[in-house]
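Protein modeling request. Please complete all fields; requests missing the sequence field cannot be processed.
Requester role: graduate student
Desired output: 3D structure, token encoding
Chains: 1
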Amino acid sequence: MTSSVSASLPEWPAKKPDFESPPVSEVAISVQFEPIQGLNPFHIGRLWEESYRKQYPSAEQKAPLPYVIEKFGKPEKGETGISILQGVPPVRHWFYNKKGTELIQIQNDKFVFNWRQTKKREKYPRYEDVIKKYKRHLKKFIAFLKANEIGELVPNQCEVTYVNAVGRETGASSHAKVADFIAPWSGRTSDDFLGQPEEVDIRTSYLMCGEDQVPLGRLHISLEPRSLVETDEPYYRFVLSARGAPLEPTIKAVGDFSDFARQYVIRAFASFTSKKAHKVWRRIDDT
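Delivered output (287 residues):
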């Protein structure tokens, strides 16, 4: 585990940022665990048949997600704040529902549950619904591992990711108008030579600390210019991802850290975006 024994999750204020019409297009909640060497595609197929196929009838195989651990403190020479496991990569299995709005992803070191907005523009069902389904499906996976004596799930990282599609509703009629919805971005230069940028691509990260200021994880923020395939209309893919180690290698601690990460993401979303955009998304908390 990467967390300190003195670390503790913070107590958040009762009121949190909230929006009636948030630009959320996808939410992913995941847990990474020590690689289970005995878990193979045959087992995953049985798991799908026994536990998920009725609700998630479609299945695919994908390239694996990387094994990543957040590190803190002064890095050694040549070391970064992220540790990536080397070796033979696992296969990632996708199970998704008929609408394509819900997705389970499993590989031998990671379990992920996604809610995704499709072209029909479904309304975001809110975190409480997503985390409830994530926990239920994760428990089925753990029970399958135990019943078949395949291995034990030992969690070492949790992650909560919100993907937002931000476009004309905030006044961002082109890829240049980032200041309309991103608070830290001014676009100003020291003279008039450059003028307005053609587009902006932002990547930044922040330490997530508990009340004792011990690092618990990192918040990664990215902003990428995109265009709609159908209309070529410009928009931005705005992603906030909070990742770190649960305070204990238990499923309860996984749930607690996921709730902490979600709180961090939504408060960071409100802090990083402009008050002009908040009016568009109809911010409703008392601030």
